[in-house]
């Protein structure tokens, strides 16, 4: 059921009010349970083309020296430096060109005094040569070349092993393979890397009221937005989303879908059906298994939560299961607080959580007592300019004005953190974290904000 009620004075709040306080977990306790159940996925070896964004499970060592041979850093001429001592515009020196060396050539003509070779960037430096004269310091001749500048010692020569020697560590285990690091692995001479694979994550929305976006709706029906929200969030976290879409409030149908998915994915994320309603199908299907815990978490929105795993068999490991509330803001907050860190750990990351900033509250709001609140907010940045004194007495070398940048936040929606306010959620680029013991946030207060975009 998609519309789990977890905003103040809702059905879930009234029911949970009857639950002993000790049974409600704090956010930290719930997160500890989640992360304590998660380890990086077993590493696999992949081609470099498939490695971008993944986390290395072992060091990458160079196969050969990098570069593997002395080569030219410029287009120009390979020379014997002693031939050109004293060369200048007023004293040009002309020498015969005995070879033409392009990048990739295997030719290695030995130069003797009085000879040069035309050479392109990256081409191996021929035996006997000890410097490169850039083409700009010549008349660009092909049979004879006139040189008007004396080269420095080893000018424009890239030495073998200058970047790395065979056996050197180029990338450490735990490194994220961003494009430059993929290039470094390729330069080291490796075509495959051992990485933690991206988890496959099935995303299911539950609720007989849900229809595919764009389809006609009758009274009581709404478009399924959660499966698109959560699939996009999975991809943003580095996982591979498997969007199943909406499943009706039918225990047999949901049970069959979950059983079929169990052997094909690493994680299943469900939204809806986790509260105390008459048609809370997720809870009805999963709770009897004994492997998924349902219970309130001291947070708003996102109070009803379920977490565990599908029962494992001899042939099928049990994928992790996250059962999230069905309201879009609740699903979004729950994903950011619990699911995303778990996916990051499965991927092998050591940095699991979003970046945070301390921001100044522009417009205040209220927070429910005894629950950590995650308020969708709009974060903006302001630079305060401090002008230099009129008498120009600032220290020498400093700018005429200087400033500091401050983050400011205001709720993304006039409705605050109500779990159904998806339009406001679209404007938010952060979640302001209000501690359990704070009930009033006033303009000018400082608050911690998780940056979500």
Automatic annotation (TrEMBL):
Family from the record: Belongs to the MoeA family.
Disordered: annotated segments: 1-21, 391-419
Annotated organism of origin: Cryobacterium ruanii
Pfam families: MoCF_biosynth, MoeA_C, MoeA_N
This protein's name: Molybdopterin molybdenumtransferase
Enzyme Commission code(s) on record: 2.10.1.1
UniProt pathway: Cofactor biosynthesis; molybdopterin biosynthesis
Single GO MF descriptor: metal ion binding
């Amino acid at each position: 059921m998609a519309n789990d009620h977890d905003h103040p004075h809702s059905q879930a709040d009234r029911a949970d009010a009857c639950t002993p306080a000790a049974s409600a977990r704090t956010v930290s306790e719930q997160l500890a349970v989640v992360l304590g159940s998660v380890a990086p996925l077993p590493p696999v070896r992949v081609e470099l083309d498939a490695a971008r964004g993944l986390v290395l499970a072992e060091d990458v060592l160079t196969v050969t020296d990098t570069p593997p041979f002395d080569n030219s850093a410029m287009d120009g001429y390979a020379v014997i430096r002693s031939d050109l001592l004293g060369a200048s515009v007023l004293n040009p020196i002309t020498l015969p060109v005995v070879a033409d060396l392009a990048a990739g050539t295997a030719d290695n003509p030995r130069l003797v005094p009085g000879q040069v070779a035309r050479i392109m960037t990256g081409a191996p430096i021929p035996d006997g040569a000890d410097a490169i004269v850039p083409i700009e310091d010549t008349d660009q001749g092909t049979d004879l070349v006139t040189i008007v500048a004396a080269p420095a010692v080893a000018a424009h020569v890239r030495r073998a092993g200058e970047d790395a020697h065979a056996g050197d560590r180029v990338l450490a285990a735990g490194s994220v393979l961003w494009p430059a690091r993929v290039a470094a692995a390729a330069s080291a001479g490796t075509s495959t890397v051992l990485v933690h694979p991206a988890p496959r994550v099935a995303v299911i929305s539950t609720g007989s009221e849900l229809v595919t976006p764009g389809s006609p709706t009758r009274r009581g029906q709404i478009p399924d937005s959660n499966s698109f929200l959560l699939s996009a969030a999975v991809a943003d976290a580095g996982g591979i989303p498997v969007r199943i879409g909406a499943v009706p409030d039918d225990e047999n149908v949901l049970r069959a879908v979950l059983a079929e998915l169990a052997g094909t994915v690493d994680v299943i994320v469900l939204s809806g059906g986790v509260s105390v309603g008459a048609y809370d199908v997720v809870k009805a299907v999963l709770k009897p298994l004994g492997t998924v815990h349902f219970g309130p978490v001291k947070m708003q929105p996102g109070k009803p939560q379920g977490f565990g795993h599908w029962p494992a068999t001899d042939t099928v490991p049990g994928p992790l299961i996250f059962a999230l509330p069905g309201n879009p803001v609740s699903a979004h907050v729950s994903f950011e607080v619990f699911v995303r860190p778990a996916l990051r750990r499965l991927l092998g990351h050591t940095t699991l959580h979003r970046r945070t900033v301390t921001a100044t509250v522009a417009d205040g709001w209220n927070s429910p007592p005894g629950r950590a609140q995650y308020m969708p907010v709009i974060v903006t940045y302001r630079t305060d300019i401090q002008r230099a004194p009129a008498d120009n007495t600032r220290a020498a070398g400093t700018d005429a004005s200087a400033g500091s940048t401050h983050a400011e936040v205001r709720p993304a929606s006039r409705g605050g953190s109500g779990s159904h306010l998806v339009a406001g959620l679209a404007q938010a680029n952060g979640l302001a974290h209000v501690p359990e013991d704070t009930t009033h946030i006033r303009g000018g207060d400082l608050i911690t904000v998780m940056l979500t975009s």
